[in-house]
Amino acid sequence: MIRNILFYIKEAFLSTKKNGIISLATIVCLTATLIIVGIFLIISLHINNFIANLESDLIAVAYLKDDLTQEEIGKLVQNTSSLEGVREVVYISKEEALQKLKEDLTEHEEILAGLPENPLPSSLEITVFEAGFLDEVSFQVNQFKGIEEVNYGGQLTKNLLIIFDFIRKTGLGIILILLFVSILIMFAVIKISVHSRQQEIEIMTLVGATSWFIRWPFIIEGFLKGLISSLMSFFIIYKAYKFYLTQVKSLIPFISVNLEPDFILRIGITLLFLGVFIGIFGSMLSLRKISYEEL
């Protein structure tokens, strides 16, 4: 078995060397394809992270009328908390609202210095689980007695989520198309390799070589091309990501790019799997299409 494995590997390298230009072009094409796939995977992960952070901070603010008693406020909190989609309700008094405003305007205290009294209303900060609940929750809370007005970044939030979801789905579609094209490239390359060694394969068939004995060198050839392409693409993506990460943070500070430390490693594993899969599957598909009567 070891002798056979060594023979398969040797034949795979000989086939690669014999079709050197085509093999190099294949590796370059697969590497470029996997780089694009990796970029879209990174973008998708960051979009998912951004959406998760955005949805965790979805808040509707219900402003209360000034003449409410503590009992009425407590009832409003209880009723609001019982609504579907509401995760948390926090009561903010007039004093707390003013104190929070002062903290936000620490460098511009003169703006508040001339106020004769506290102009801010008390409010309820309502956190929901998903963006889809914002409209309905805001509408229902607005019907409660004692509510002056309900404000939330509803349309803006929904527009952002729609845009990012579109980008994510478009990226997935592009990835699938690129993978399909990569498999076709590998299919064509292995088919060329088979035909370039047609005479050798005919001789091997005549002396009793099994179909899998003939196929394995080509499968290993596809595996090696996919492996080399995935390793090269990951190396390029890793270096580029580290370089541009600080630029992205400075240009778009409001978008979170703080993913798990091992996420780039997971991208590498994904690319490795995809590269090997493309190489092996494309090779087997090519060999399946060629009957040994033709060979």
Descriptive overview:
By secondary structure, the protein is α+β, with helices and mostly antiparallel strands. It folds into 2 domains: 2-54 and 158-289, no CATH class; 59-151, Alpha-Beta Plaits. It is built from 10 helices and 4 strands; from the N terminus they run H-H-E-H-E-H-H-E-H-E-H-H-H-H. A 4-stranded antiparallel β-sheet has the order 2-3-1-4. Mean pLDDT is 77; it is low at 289-295.
In round numbers, the mean pLDDT is: 77
**What percent of residues adopt helix (DSSP H or I)?**
over 70%
Order of helices and strands: HHEHEHHEHEHHHH
Largest sheet: 4 strands, antiparallel
Structural class: alpha+beta
Number of domains: 2
Distance between the termini: 25 Å
Compute the gyration radius: what is it?
31 Å
Count of extended strands: 4
Low-pLDDT residue spans: 289-295
Instruction: Count every helix, treating DSSP H or I runs of 4 or more residues as helices.
Output: 10
Shape: rod-shaped
Main sheet: strand order: 2-3-1-4
Strand content: 5-15%
